[in-house]
Task: structure prediction
Amino acid sequence: MRTLQIVVMIVGVLFLHASHAPGAQPSHSVNVIDPLRKDMEIELALSALPSHLRDDATMYTLNPKKGFEVTRTGTNGFHAFVIRTGPGAFRASWPFTKYPDDIIGPFSFDSTGVNAQMKMLFDVAEMQAQGMQPGDLKRTIHKRYTAGSYRAPARTGVAYMLSPMFRTYQNPEESDTVITMNYPHYMYYAPHVTNADVGGKMMSPYSFIIDPGPHGFIVQGVGQTETAAITKEYESMLTRLCDLKSAYCLTK
Result:
């Protein structure tokens, strides 16, 4: 049952993305994301990466009034940050009327993902910071994808999501229910690959395809032993996140 729940939860983190509409003015105020304490945000972002890549990765923190800003310029081609608006909402059929205040997701991309999936996530943060209404942002996303504004990855690569905690939509295809999960995993770029091609099955503990099409991924969990080790490594961080907001507690 736990395996099924984990797989369902990870589906919720998957991508359909956003774009930027220059000069857009809000029709009325939107809820502003409360920033994380900077040291906590940096630690959480870096937890997405394996240990040997953390020191030389480019780091970003979120300025709720502007979007993502570079905190440290790296040298190894990897980028780490924490999203606060879940991309799953943008492909869902339910109305997107309010930005959640409890979504939190440590992401990292290699250099190949910068102009594709990462660019989308940064555009989302920037548009929200500018005051764009959720419904308008969602419509902008679809227009950008239809226009081909976000390029498919040019080669095979990896997006690490090895953090012991993230909170996002449980199953955005069905509802806006948000859930906290403990599922460190890898996501490999797999444009136009299907589950039939790799023998993947969505509701299973094995590798599977999400978001099939030009921006598809193969998702692979790290396994129980490594998950336990990662969770233990970040025990102090998890405690501080839980103290910050009950929604961030893994026991929830």
Q: What stands out?
A: The radius of gyration is 17 Å. The CA atoms of residues 97 and 134 lie 5 Å apart. Residues 2-248 form one domain.
